[in-house]
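Hi everyone, sorry if this is the wrong subforum. Our group has a chain we'd like a structural model of before ordering constructs, and none of us has done structure prediction before. Sequence below.
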Amino acid sequence: MEDARVSVNAARDNPQVASYAPAELDQAVATLRQADDLAARGGRLGEVHQLATLASQRAAFAQDAARTRSEQAALMVQRRANDAQSTANLSQRQAESAQVQATAAQAQAEEAQRVASSMQLRADAYAPPAYDYRRRPNEPLYEANVTYVRAVVGPPQQRCWVDRERVGGPSGVNIPGAIIGGVIGGILGHQIGGGRGQDIATGIGVVGGAAVGANVGRGSDGPVYTQNVQRCEYVPTSATLDYWDVTYTYGGYEHRVQMTTPPGTTIWVNAQGEPRV
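Answer:
Right subforum, don't worry. Here is the predicted structure as tokens:
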């Protein structure tokens, strides 16, 4: 009985047993109590000894079960910590890759801005200068013969678009991100210049904005990314005439003027040969 009591008390004092094997400890305590009751009633010694032995065995089993379950719990905690570390490492790699893509997209946006500025300069170069052709009060006018007329159209326009290419395993593409980036880029590009130059800048701003909206996803085969590839081509402008380049002679000298309407065989000029309408 004394050995059984020592075994049960040792199990009670072990905090692991209380945490991981409470049911087994309760069985050992109940068996020891039965042995005490039987001994107090004057029961047969063999039956008392048998119950005491069973109580010791159940106390030892409670100790073993608590130790095993404690080790399993520690392994589970370690496994979860390893999984969390792996997830953190993967997220770090994805963040680094996204940063690289953002840097590349920014470079594309800056290049698009440079192209837009260049196109604006070309458009401005083709724009006819503004002259005041109005007749002055009491200004005498004379007829000058038109010798050459050339119709001038606007410059060619650059049309750009973005093709999305996927890198990595199968995954969906974050299309809303590209759309939002394109809208923002278009708004910014619309602030540049005016007329056709502003339209061109708006289109290129859409390209840059869509590039910044590059998507990062994750498929079943690992991290998946998409990259934007910008492609451009020059297309002819419309057949609408911008102005008429007119050459005429007056006073023995040849003059040139740009007009918004086609001239006849002669135009009106002042005494200095400046055109008047």
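For your construct planning: The mean pLDDT is 79. The chain is about 55% helix and 25% strand.
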